[in-house]
Amino acid sequence: MRIGNAWATVVSAKGHLDRARRLGLYDTASSSGFADQHVDILDAVLVGDVSLARAAMRAHLRAVFDDVERIRECSPELFATDSGAVRVRRNIVAWE
């Protein structure tokens, strides 16, 4: 995998992920493990373990999406309610 391809994937979701991260900052319990997850992902990439990096990235993204769902339950007013709203994507393909 080329780094350019990875960055294009990150950029396509970055706005939504940044919003989720900012919303989660108000709850210290929700963000406490995310930094450790970043370290796990980086460590796997640095040693070239694609399988471990993929698993760590998937676990991290699932945790972010779980955080978004928790925030949606606590503060539904922060999310679109119309029938055309796009739901959080639960099916993640990382590095395939």
Description:
About 65% of the residues lie in helices and about 0% in strands. The protein is mainly α. The chain is globular, with a radius of gyration of 14 Å.
- Looking at the chains present, what oligomeric state does this protein adopt? single chain
Portion of residues in helices?
55-70%
Main sheet specs: none
Q: Ends: how far apart? A: 8 Å
Number of strands: 0
What's the order of the H and E elements?
HHHH
- Poorly predicted spans: none
Percentage beta strand:
under 5%
Average pLDDT over all residues: 76
Summed up, the helix count is 4
Our Rg estimate from Cα atoms comes to 14 Å
**Class by SSE composition:** mainly alpha
Shape estimate: globular
Summarize the structure.
This protein has helices at residues 3-24, 28-31, 34-46, 50-74. It is mainly α and 96 residues long.
